[in-house]
Amino acid sequence: xxxxxxxxxxxxxxxxxxxxxxxxxxxxxxxxxxxxxxxxxxxxxxxxxxxxxxxxxxxxxxxxxxxxxxxxxxxxxxxxxxxxxxxxxxx
Length: 91
Prior knowledge:
- By secondary structure, the protein is α+β, with helices and mostly antiparallel strands.
- The protein has a single domain, classed as GIY-YIG endonuclease.
- It is built from five helices and three strands.
- It has helices at 6-12, 36-41, 46-49, 51-54, 67-81, and strands spanning 16-21, 27-33, 58-63.
- A hairpin with a 5-residue loop joins strand 1 and strand 2.
- It is globular and about 35 Å long.
């Protein structure tokens, strides 16, 4: 059984971003969550069910200090990495 430290559990209870990566470590989807652990790690979430559809083989979790920081980081990474499964809107 894997033990999860209290510090890690605390980080997963807060805001952050998650990045689904394919087998070549190329980002396929980037998203934000107010409760990072429950959004990205719960087996019942839509995002987890879509892992196979996205061609993702792993997920990277990035805890943030606030929702605003998570949104900023998500927007920055979306502009830089252009993951194929994210929806992009033109103005």
